[in-house]
């Protein structure tokens, strides 16, 4: 017996079940966090690629130089 006093019948089983459930929830949370971090990183890479492609298209279309010239004039 520990310092918490006597346990009710089934108390240990209930505590063990709660600890197991907590452990499972924690593992699922960690897996979800890892998945979300990976997806956010992938999305960030896609956004960077999109920005580069838009910039390249603007240069090809001659739009970027026009925008820069307008910005310098104001």
TrEMBL record:
Coiled coil: 33-60
Keywords, ordered alphabetically: Coiled coil
GO-annotated cellular components: cytosol; nucleus
Matching Gene3D superfamilies: 1.20.5.430
Pfam families registered for this protein in UniProt: HSBP1
InterPro entries: HS1-bd (IPR009643)
PANTHER family according to UniProt: HEAT SHOCK FACTOR BINDING PROTEIN 1 (PTHR19424), HEAT SHOCK FACTOR-BINDING PROTEIN 1-LIKE PROTEIN 1 (PTHR19424:SF4)
UniProt similarity note: Belongs to the HSBP1 family.
Full protein name: Heat shock factor-binding protein 1-like protein 1
Lineage of source species: Eukaryota, Metazoa, Chordata, Craniata, Vertebrata
Name of the coding gene: HSBP1L1
């Amino acid at each position: 017996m520990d310092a918490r006093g006597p346990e009710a019948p089934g108390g240990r089983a209930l505590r063990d079940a709660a600890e197991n459930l907590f452990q499972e929830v924690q593992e699922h949370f960690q897996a979800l966090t890892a998945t979300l971090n990976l997806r956010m990183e992938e999305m960030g890479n896609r956004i960077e690629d999109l920005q580069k492609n838009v910039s390249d298209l603007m240069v090809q279309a001659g739009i970027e130089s026009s925008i820069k010239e307008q910005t310098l004039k104001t």
